[in-house]
Amino acid sequence: MTKQITQNYTEANFGLNQQHNADDEIDLRELFAVIWQGKWLIIAITSIFAVGSVIFALSQPNTYKSEALLSPADSEQGGGGLAALAGQFGGLASMAGINLGGGGGVDKTQMAIEVVKSRKFTSEFIQKHQILADLMAAEKWNMESDSLVYDPEVFDMDNQKWVREVKAPFKPEPSMQEAYKEFSQLISINNDKESGMVKVAVEHLSPTVAQQWVNWLVEDINLEMKQRDVAEAQRSTAFLENQIAQTNIADIRTILYQLIEEQTKTIMFAEVREEYVFKTIDPALVPEEKAGPKRALICVLGIMLGGMLAIMIVLIRHFVRKED
């Protein structure tokens, strides 16, 4: 009896599986049949997307990328500032109650990269070199005159006036926050952990502008890091001179004078060295070949999107009609 029941259950399951597979086969056939019936609609929609993607790709202006290869400059003054010197003299100075701060060097290369990416540096860079119009209003590049053409609905070149229409809290002249977002999309800084080399690149409508911005970035970050270290050394010197005035112990005064001497070396080193943080290995050039846009990829993606959308429309229309 039990054997008979088990056999019947197995046969029932087998029958259900066969029915399920048959349903799947029927559904798959129906699906292909529906797509085939709507082939002309699919072809029409895909063709529209194909033409649209070609027009869009051709309407996009060329962009050019200029890049420079940099090497971190060797720091002859150690970790820089009072904190680095504390590792050498901190023990003796602490016996006199003088706190020189913690040791531990700072990776100046990584710090310089983060400074370049910061809002403060970007804002100062844009204002210093007066590139807001080139950044926010450039529409295309005139190859013959090597000049930028600005969008007349955004920037009035003749009167040097911003005329774009925006809603509050935005103003006709772009803010530094807007400029920072746009600038961050145009620059790239990559640090090779193995070799230590740093690559700075700028992509812009104008190849000349791209090269100029790369050169300015390298110059400005070297200057910025130099000024930071000089200011730190000057503060350290002032602190040490104050400590000298407060102690009469000859050995401690000798140590403090040696610390001041090291700070003086730091300042002198910074003043005589132009490539303070980064040395240029391969300078930026005016690119001759475009970096973008990738028009073939735009067309392929447009055709694929149009085809998938067309198939979805055909299937949705069929099942809606079937339910009705």
UniProtKB/TrEMBL annotation:
Domain Tyrosine-protein kinase G-rich positions: 279-318
Domain Polysaccharide chain length determinant N-terminal: 24-128
Location in the cell: Cell membrane
TM regions (residue ranges): 40-58, 296-320
Membrane topology of this protein: Multi-pass membrane protein
Protein name per UniProt: Lipopolysaccharide biosynthesis protein
UniProt source species: Shewanella japonica
Pfam families with a match to the protein in the record: GNVR, Wzz
Key words, A-Z: Cell membrane, Membrane, Transmembrane, Transmembrane helix
